[in-house]
Amino acid sequence: MMMMMMMQRLRRSEEFIRFGFTSLINLRPNKNSVSRSLSGFVNHYDTKGKLFESKNGNHYNTELHHRCLGKNLGMLQQYKCFGSSSASQIERNPLFSSLDSKDVSYFKEILGDKNVVEDEERLETANTDWMQKYKGSSKLMLLPKNTEEVSQILQYCDSRRLAVVPQGGNTGLVGGSVPVFDEVIINVGLMNKVLAFDEVSGVLVCEAGCILENLATFLDTKGFIMPLDLGAKGSCHIGGNVSTNAGGLRLIRYGSLHGTVLGLEAVTANGNVLDMLGTLRKDNTGYDLKHLFIGSEGSLGIVTKVSILTQPKLSSVNLAFIACKDYLSCQKILVEAKRNLGEILSAFEFLDSNSMDLVLNHLDGVRNPVSSTENFYILIETTGSDETNDREKLEAFLLKSLEKGLVSDGVIAQDINQASSFWRIREGITEALQKAGAVYKYDLSLPVEEIYNIVNDLRGRLGDLANVMGYGHLGDGNLHLNISAANYNDKLLGLIEPYVYEWTSKHRGSISAEHGLGVMKANEIFYSKSPETVAIMASIKKLLDPKGILNPYKVLPHSLISH
Amino acid sequence: MMMMMMMQRLRRSEEFIRFGFTSLINLRPNKNSVSRSLSGFVNHYDTKGKLFESKNGNHYNTELHHRCLGKNLGMLQQYKCFGSSSASQIERNPLFSSLDSKDVSYFKEILGDKNVVEDEERLETANTDWMQKYKGSSKLMLLPKNTEEVSQILQYCDSRRLAVVPQGGNTGLVGGSVPVFDEVIINVGLMNKVLAFDEVSGVLVCEAGCILENLATFLDTKGFIMPLDLGAKGSCHIGGNVSTNAGGLRLIRYGSLHGTVLGLEAVTANGNVLDMLGTLRKDNTGYDLKHLFIGSEGSLGIVTKVSILTQPKLSSVNLAFIACKDYLSCQKILVEAKRNLGEILSAFEFLDSNSMDLVLNHLDGVRNPVSSTENFYILIETTGSDETNDREKLEAFLLKSLEKGLVSDGVIAQDINQASSFWRIREGITEALQKAGAVYKYDLSLPVEEIYNIVNDLRGRLGDLANVMGYGHLGDGNLHLNISAANYNDKLLGLIEPYVYEWTSKHRGSISAEHGLGVMKANEIFYSKSPETVAIMASIKKLLDPKGILNPYKVLPHSLISH
User: Fold this and answer.
1) Selected residue of B173, B195, B270, B287 to mutate for chain A interface (largest A Cβ count, 10 A)
2) What gap in Å lies between CA A232 and CA A253, rounded to an integer?
3) Structural contact between residues A409 and A20, judged by C-beta atoms closer than 8 angstroms
4) Which of A132, A179, A196, A332 shows the smallest number of beta carbons within 10 Å?
5) Which ipTM was obtained for this model?
6) Comparing C-alpha atoms, which of A544, A560, A553 is closest to residue A518?
7) B285 touches chain A (CB under 8 A)
8) Predicted TM-score of the model (pTM)
9) Are B138 and B182 in contact (CB under 8 A)?
10) Do A517 and B256 touch (CB under 8 A)?
11) pLDDT tens by residue, B326-377
12) CB contacts, 8 Å: A386 with chain B
C-alpha cells in the first residue's frame, strides 16, 4: 500500500531538485520488515550459531561473536546462551515447581487440547530466540484466547509456583521472551483482535497479540499510522512492544510509548486482572500504574490489551543524505533541523566514515551518494502534510546549512530507488559488519554531545587491534557502537568491557537504549540505575509477584529476586 | 519578550488574509499568566469566600458555590474547606505526632533560623490554597535549599511520624498543596536553580522550585520553549507541575509530562534520595520508576530535580475562529485538522452557543468575530517554522472545510489584538460564569464522540432549573462542563451529582482530566479507577511511605491509607 502510494507519487513527480553536486528525488523505501532488527538494522542470520570451545571453556558463536553464559553444570545445563558478555551464571530457582501431568491436564481443561502445546518442534521454536542466542527447555506452551484464560493460567501457576515466560512475537534481542530453564511459555498470539478504533481521537484499542504490521495495515485503511515502527513489525506483537517499551524509527517524531500508550489491561501473577484500559489523553486520577508495565518486560504482569494514540497518515515524505566533516557539525545540524524542520522531522540518523567504508567495501552495489569523502554522514527524513511546502522547507534548510559550512555536500532522494539506496547504507552496516569478521555490539544512549567521544576514546584505547565504528539514531541520542576485528579474542574483550559500560555509566548514559535488559543484561543494571532505585524495583516486583513466577531471571539482578 | 516579537512581526505584516466574511490577522496574545487557572481559564477572586450555613449544616462559599466538607466537630474543626462536593468527613490521623519545640529546634539546626517559618502571616498564606477553598492549620513551614536538606527533614519527620505537605507554587485547584490539618509544610521555593541546559538535545535540568515562567524566560534566550504552558506559570513550580502531571495548553502538541519528563530526583518519606535524573530520550534499563512520581501529587516522594525535553521555539503562530452548526461537524473538523494541520496544530478549543451567549452578555467589549450565530465555535491555533507555508496551510484547510459545509463561517486573526479578542472569548467563560450567578464546575475527560452527549443529557435532566454549558480542550478530549443557576440549591446539586460522575464513569471518562484528586476528590477515585488498581496504588503508597507521612488525606481514599 505504502509502496503503491509512493509509486503513484513518483509517477506524478516532474521536477528534479538540485542540491549539492547531484540531482535526485524523494521518499522512503518499503522496508523489508522481517529482516530489520529492533534497532533498525538489517540482520541476516541464515544459519544457526556454530559453537566452538574457547580457551577458558566459554562457548562462542561464530556468527554472533558473543561470549556464552552457559556451562554444563547441574541445573545450568538447561540454560543455553550464546550472546551475552556477562560472565555470571544463573541457577534454576529451586523454589519453583516442576511441571507434572496434572498441570497439563488442568491447562487442557481450561484452554482446550489444541492450545496446550507439547509438540517438540513447536516448543523448539518457542524455546529459542530469533537470533538463536538464547535457548530454554520449556516442555509446555499455552495459547490463551482471552484475558480470562490468561488470568486462570496465572492464578493456577501462582498457586503451584510454576514459573512462566510471557511471549509475544519473540523478536527481542536480550533473551527476554524465551525461557531460561523450564518456565511455562504463555504466548498471547491468539489474542489478536482489534477491539475499537476511534477516527476522531485516533485511539486504537486492541488485544496484546496483534502483530504490529497488521495494526499498521488496519490503520492504513483508516488513514492513520502507528506511533511506532520497527524492523520486526512483521512478527512482533503490540503487547511485546509495550512490555519492552520498544523504540524504533518514529520515536524522534512521536515520542516513547510512555507518551503514546493511553491505557493497558494487564494480568498480575496471581491472576488479578488490572483494568487500566483508558482511552483518554488526560486522566489525573491517582497513580498512573500502566507505566509500571511499559518496559518491565513481562516481569510484573502480562499485558493483555492496549489502548494507543495513533497518528494521521501524512502524504509527503522526503529524504536527504548529507556529508559533514566533524561531529560538532553533526550536532549543529541536528539543532538546526529541530528548529527549522521541527514539525516535519521524522528521522535523523548518522554514521561515521569507518561505517561508510565498511559498507562500501563489503556490500555489493552500494555507492556513496555524495561526491566528497567526509568523516560523517547524516540521513534526514521529513514527513508532513504538504508536498510542496515540505520539500521547499527541506531544501531551504539544506542550502542554509551548506552556506554555513556545516554541510560539505548533500543530496535529496528523487525517487524511491534513490531513497532506498540511501537507507541501504545506513541499514546495511550490520550486514557489512558481519562480513568483516568478529564484532562486539553495544546499544547505548548518551548525551548527544558525548556520543562520539566514546568512539574516539575507544579507538585510542584499542589502537590497531580493532576497527571502531559509530552510527545510530543521533536524533534520539542513541549510539550503536560496534567494534570489528578479524577474530574474537579475550584480550580485546577485556579492553572493551567493562570499559564501555563504565564509560557509559560515568556519562549518565544507558547501557540499553531500546532493547531492554532481559536475561542478557539483568545483572548489569547498576551501570545505569542507582542501588536505591533498583531496590525499589525489586520491592515492586515482590509486591506484584511475591512468588517471583513471572519471567524469572530477567530484568533485575538475580541476587535480588531469586528468593 | 514574546510580546515584543509579536509586535515586530505585526509591524512587518503587510498582507491581510481574507477568509469567511471578514479579514483579520495572526497571533496569540501574551497571556496574563497569573490570572489564568491550570485549565486555561481566567479566574478573578477578589474577595475571600463568605460563608453561610445551609439547611443541612454544610457551609457554602458565595463566590465559589461549592459545598463544604468541614464540620466543626473535634479534630475536624481544624479542617476548613469551601470547595468540595464530597460529603465525606476527614479526621486527623491520630497516629501522627504533633509538632513540639524540640522539632523546631532540630529544623533550625539543619536549615538555619530564617528558613524555618513560624510567622503567622506567612503561615496563613501557606496554609491557604490560591482559590481560598482549602485551609490548613500548620504551625511550621520549612524552606530547604537543597536535596540534602529535604532528605534530612523527611528522615526526621518519618522517624517522628510528623506528617508533611510538599508545596510548590501552591496553585493547585483540588487542595493538594496545602495542609489539611497541622502537617509541616515543606516548600521547595528556594531550590530554584537551572542546573544544565543542552542546546543540542534541548534537555533542561533544574531544581524543583523553579517557577515555570522563569524557565520559559531562560529558554527563550536559548531559542527554546517549555513543552507545557499553564495559566499559573507565573507562580507554579516545575516540581509541582511534575507532581500533578499538569496538562495545560501545549498538551495537544507536545503530549503529557509522562512523555516529556526524561528524569527526576525525588526524596521518599524516609529521606532516601532517588536519583532517576536521566537526560536520555531512550533508556530501557529496568522499571521506569519516575512515572510513579509524575502525577502522584507528592504522596510518594518530594520531587527535588527535574530533567525535561524542551522544544525549539518556532516563529510562526496563527489563530482561526470558526463557527459550525453541530457537534458532529466539530468532530469532523478536529479529524481534518489533525490530518491537514497535523504537524503545526497547537491548540483546538471549542465552546457552545450557551457559553458564547454568556460571554457576550456578561463581559464588556466582547463581540462574536463571525457574522453568523451558530451552535458551536472552535479556535484553531497553529505553530510552525515557516510563516508563509503555515499560513497557506491553515487557509487551505479552512477553505476546504467551508466547501465541505463543516464550517459555516470563520476568520483568521490578522493582528495581536484580534488574536487576543478571540482568546478573550474562550478564556472569559469562567469570569462570565461567575458574574451570571451560582456555578457548578466539572473538569472531565471523555471520548471525543461522547463529549457533547453529557451536555445534552444534563440539559434534558435539568430543564429550566439551570443553564448547562460545554466548552474546553476538544483536541485533548477535555470537557469543561459548567452548570449555571441563579442560586445554589441542594435540589439542583442532587440532580447533578452523582449523575455527572456516574455518567463519566459509565463512558470510561475521567473525573479529573488535569487537576488531580488532592483532598477534594480523593474519595471519588473509584469513579475513574477500578478497585484492583486502587488497591495496588495503596500498596505502593505503603511501600514507599509506610508511616503515611507524605501529603496525607490526599489522592487515595482515606479509608485505604489512614492506618
Assistant:
1) B287
2) 19
3) yes
4) A196
5) 0.84
6) A553
7) yes
8) 0.84
9) yes
10) no
11) 999 999 999 899 888 988 999 999 999 999 999 999 999 999 999 888 999 9
12) 389, 393
